[in-house]
Amino acid sequence: LDFHQAIDDFVTKTCDLRQYELSDANWAGIELVMQWLKSFCSATTQMSTTKCPMLSSAHAIFHGLQESLQEDLAELPDSVPVKLRSALTSTHCKLSNYYFKVDESPFYV
Question: Comparing C-alpha atoms, which of 69, 85, 67 is closest to residue 77?
Answer without folding.
Answer: 85
